[in-house]
Specification:
Blueprint: H1 2-5, E1 11-13, H2 22-31, E2 36-39, H3 43-46, H4 51-63, E3 67-72, H5 81-94, E4 99-103, H6 114-135, E5 138-142, H7 148-159, E6 165-170, H8 171-174, H9 183-187, E7 192-196, E8 199-202, E9 205-208
Parallel strand pairs: 1-2, 2-3, 3-4, 4-5, 5-6, 6-7
Antiparallel strand pairs: 8-9
Length: 217
């Protein structure tokens, strides 16, 4: 059943192995049958910030017969988030990548911190609007630990323009403590821009191949 759901366009993130360079990963990804690749969050490994590095990446994609669908950028609440994500959007535009995925906050935080955390994140997003407009790149906020940190994403998206900001659904994050219904995905389906599809075995064994864990697909 799961095999029947696999689309012709298949992508995998480079974060599955930071131990190997992109030169080593891209041919393996192509050989495994993937058509697209997503750059992981660690920019020193992903090497997209410099102009010469972006050109090398573009050549490497062509040589490996791959396309890129997302880049995982830095967190929205970190210092220099605007600067870092501006550079990421510039790189994404250069590489014809339509979406930059971001965490809006740390993986977890106490509910009492919600109000003090949300304003600077919304301010950063507001400053990213002209960058998104100029580059043609959209930003997808990813759900993290169920609770305040993921409610943070929904709250932010209610206040952000859909033309520039959307949702990245991570199944393994959402199903912590599961299996459970896909109510988060259903509630934000109209804002969906990207999907991180993986299974979960137990709370600290995640991001495994769909069908190897307990998620009720």
């Amino acid at each position: 059943m799961i095999r029947d759901l696999v689309p012709k366009q298949k992508s995998i993130s480079t974060c599955f192995s930071y131990a190997h360079t992109l030169e080593g990963l891209f041919p393996l990804i192509n050989t495994a049958g993937f058509t697209h690749v997503s750059l992981g969050e660690k920019s020193p490994h992903s090497r997209y910030l410099g102009i010469s590095e972006r050109k090398s990446l573009r050549h490497l994609l062509v040589d490996s017969d791959l396309k890129m669908d997302t880049i995982h950028g830095s967190r929205l609440d970190l210092p220099k988030a605007l600067y870092n994500l501006s550079a990421t959007a510039e790189a994404a535009a250069f590489l014809d990548v339509p979406v930059v995925v971001v965490h809006a906050s740390s993986f977890n935080f106490d509910a009492s911190e919600f109000n003090e955390r949300i304003k600077p994140v919304l301010d950063t997003c507001e400053a990213l609007v002209p960058i998104a407009e100029e580059s043609g790149v959209k930003f997808a906020l990813e759900n993290v630990l169920p609770g305040p940190a993921t409610e943070f994403v929904g709250y932010a998206l209610e206040r952000l323009p859909s033309g520039y900001f959307g949702f990245c659904y991570d199944s393994s994050h959402d199903q912590i403590g599961g299996p459970k219904p896909f109510t988060l995905l259903e509630s934000l389906a109209d804002r969906l821009l990207a999907l991180h599809l993986s299974d979960r075995i137990r709370d600290h064994v995640d991001h495994v191949v769909p069908g190897e864990g307990f998620i009720d697909w």
